[in-house]
Each structure stands twice: as structure tokens, then as C-alpha cells.
Amino acid sequence: MTRRRIAARGFTLIEVMVALAVVAIGLAAAIRIGANNAANAAYLRDKTLAQWVAENKTTELLLQTSWPPTGSANGSSTMAGSQWYWQTLISATVDPRVRRLEVSAGREQDHPMVHLVAFLPQPSAAVSPPAPAAGAGN
Fold first, then answer.
1. Do residues 58 and 101 lie in contact, with contact meaning Cβ atoms separated by under 8 Å?
2. What distance in Å separates the CA atoms of residue 110 and residue 133, rounded to the nearest whole number?
3. Residue 15: helix, strand or coil by DSSP?
4. Is 51 exposed, middle or buried (0-12, 13-18, 19+ CB in 10 A)?
5. 120 phi/psi in degrees, rounded to 5
6. By CB distance 3.0 to 4.6 Å, which of 20, 53, 72, 115 could disulfide with 105?
7. How many angstroms separate the CA atoms of 22 and 17, rounded?
8. Half-sphere exposure of 91 (CA within 13 A, CB side)
9. Helix/strand/coil (H, E, C) string of 94-119?
10. Cα first-last separation, the chain
11. pLDDT tens digits along 20-73
12. Full-prediction pTM beyond 0.85?
């Protein structure tokens, strides 16, 4: 009987280890990207909610029937199940019928995430609806 030596085909240990190292580096980069995306999504959610808090406060002041006095005010409100802190600063402008409003809002009282600037017009006196024209509605 003759023995033939059959050449073995396959990967060497070094080749397998290099391939595993490349895969590990790629997976680590993918995990880091995923973690960054999750953190960014949470930040954008918080920033959006803070913007809504500031816009709500601005709308609240715009809808008041009396003109808010100049000065600053602090407060908090609940949005999406979380406590949010806001600060307003109302100042006079060169037009005596308009006041400048600055609203800051964020999760922490001393670290606002957004700043919103708006202008408040002087509320007009209650206007009664116009009387119907003569002969209208007949």
C-alpha cells in the first residue's frame, strides 16, 4: 500500500485571528455609532420638549388680556411626564406698544436648553362685534 500525503486546505491560526480582530473592530465601531445615535435621539427629544415648553409659555402670555409687566419670572410646568423649568424676561422696546419677551426652558433650572424671543403687542380693548348691516339677515 502506498501512502499519499493529501495537502490540507484551510485557514491557519494567524489568518483566523486576524479575521476575528477585523470583525471585532467593526462591531465595536457599530456599537459606538448605535450608542451615539441613541444619545443624540434623547437629546433631540429633550430639546424639542423644551422648545414646546417655551412656546407654550409664549402663547400663554400672548393670550392674556392684560399686558404683563416688565421684569423676570420663573416657574415650572409638566410636559411629557417630566418637570421643565422656564424663565421669562420681559423688557420694553422703542415702540411703547410692544414689549420684548425672552423665554428660556430646560430640565434643569439653571441650565436652559432653548431660548426663545418673541414680541408682545399691547392688548387692545375688548372690541364688540360690528352691528349687522341694515337689511341683512332678512
1. yes
2. 57
3. helix
4. middle
5. -100, 120
6. 53
7. 9
8. 6
9. CCCCEEEEEEEEECECCECCEEEEEE
10. 123
11. 999 999 999 999 988 888 889 999 999 999 999 999 999 999 998 888 899 999
12. no
Residue 91 DSSP SS3? strand
Which residue shows C-alpha cell 432653548? Answer: 114
At which residue does the C-alpha cell 483566523 appear? 16
Nearest to 79 by CA among 47, 40, 102, 111: 47
Going by CATH, does the domain composed of 13-121 fall within 3.30.1300.30?
yes
Q: How many residues in total does the chain contain?
A: 138
CA angle 8, 13, 15 (to 5 degrees): 95
Specify the amino acid at residue 41: A
119 close to 97: Cβ distance less than 8 angstroms: no
DSSP 12: -
Which letter does DSSP use for residue 65 in this model? S
**Three-state secondary-structure class, residue 75:** strand
Residue that is written with C-alpha cell 411629557 in the block: 80
Sorted by where each begins, the domain ranges of the chain are 13-121
